[in-house]
Design goal:
29% strand; 136 residues; alpha+beta
Amino acid sequence: MKKAILQIENLTTSFRIGNKYHAAVDDVSFTVNENEIVAVVGESGCGKSALALSIIQLHNKQRTKSEGNINYKGQNLLKLNDVQMNKVRGKELGMIFQEPLTALNPLMTIGKQIEESLDYHTELSSAEKRAGHSNF
């Protein structure tokens, strides 16, 4: 029997333009089971990035609303506050952004940027981080 790790149920993410919300992700549902890889494909502008940002809760909450359920390991991510979500985001869920020029800081080495993320999301020592341990 397959174990569901991520279940997206009737997810709608809308962006506020003026005083009205417009759906970029409209009633999306799918399940990712343990040891599965899922690819979301579509034309430019169809909502793939908006979907991924909704899952890891990186949208600006003042201009965006997400409705439905995003269940990760049995908890609805839409119900978590920022502190709770930060414990999941980066440590268990993450996103590799499309545009490296905006995602990476050219003034820091990539290793230092990865270490910075590990500082925030793990209890690893400096030596463990540099050794490449993944025991978070």
